[in-house]
Amino acid sequence: MSRTITVEGMSCEHCEQSVTEALEGVSGVTSATADHESASATVEGDADVDALVDAVSEAGYNASA
User: Fold this and answer.
1) Residue 36 is part of which domain span?
2) 41: domain CATH number?
3) Which residues fall in a coiled-coil region (predicted)?
4) pLDDT tens across 8-41, in order?
5) What is the C-alpha separation between 1 and 62, in angstroms, rounded?
6) Which of 45, 35, 41 shows the shortest CA–CA distance to 11?
7) In the chain, how many domains are there?
8) What is the number of helices (H) and of strands (E) in the chain?
9) Whole-model pTM?
């Protein structure tokens, strides 16, 4: 399953990498990519959306599903 979440606060490729790594650490995520230009991240897998939002928040960014 593919899911896209909104991520605010990313401004560069380093930010994208931080968000991607945070999302990939969530149980059930098989892959993740973040894009600061579209202020979003796409996640593959069956992870709980609340866990995704929490992981991005813990990385220092604002997320919503």
Assistant:
1) 2-64
2) 3.30.70.100
3) none
4) 999 999 999 999 999 999 999 999 999 999 999 9
5) 22
6) 35
7) 1
8) 2, 4
9) 0.96
What is the per-residue pLDDT for 41?
A: 98
Question: Integer distance in angstroms from the first to the last C-alpha of the chain?
Answer: 14
Q: What is the pLDDT of residues 40-59, one digit of tens each?
A: 999 999 999 999 999 999 99
Q: Which two tokens stand for residue 8?
A: 């605010």
| Helical spans, DSSP H, in the chain | 13-24, 49-58
Give the CA diameter of the chain: 27
**What stretch of H or E contains 9?**
none
Q: Residue 41 is encoded by which pair of tokens?
A: 């991240």
**For residues 2 and 12, what is the distance between their CA atoms, to the nearest angstrom?**
23
**Which amino acid, residue 5?**
I
Provide the pLDDT for residue 3.
97
